[in-house]
Fold:
Amino acid sequence: MRIAYHAESLIDAHLVKDALERAEIPAFIAGEFLTGAVGQLPARDFLAVMVPEAAAEAAEGIVRQVDARLAEARAAAASDDDFGSLTLPA
Structure:
């Protein structure tokens, strides 16, 4: 098995896993059940989407696409959270 993706959250891991499975690439999430033990700590070092060695090359393109979409979504969410333009009533 090979790590195809280091996930920042369980949701990200499942999005990548689901995309791989839709492309008929078997995948599983390593460390999924460890997230409860770390509480509010970042899960990046604990979560990884794994694929068989034979499917690793095919998985790379799919993982890049999903990761790019996740990065776009994070950037859009960050710009929506810009509180600098928020004015509070006096």
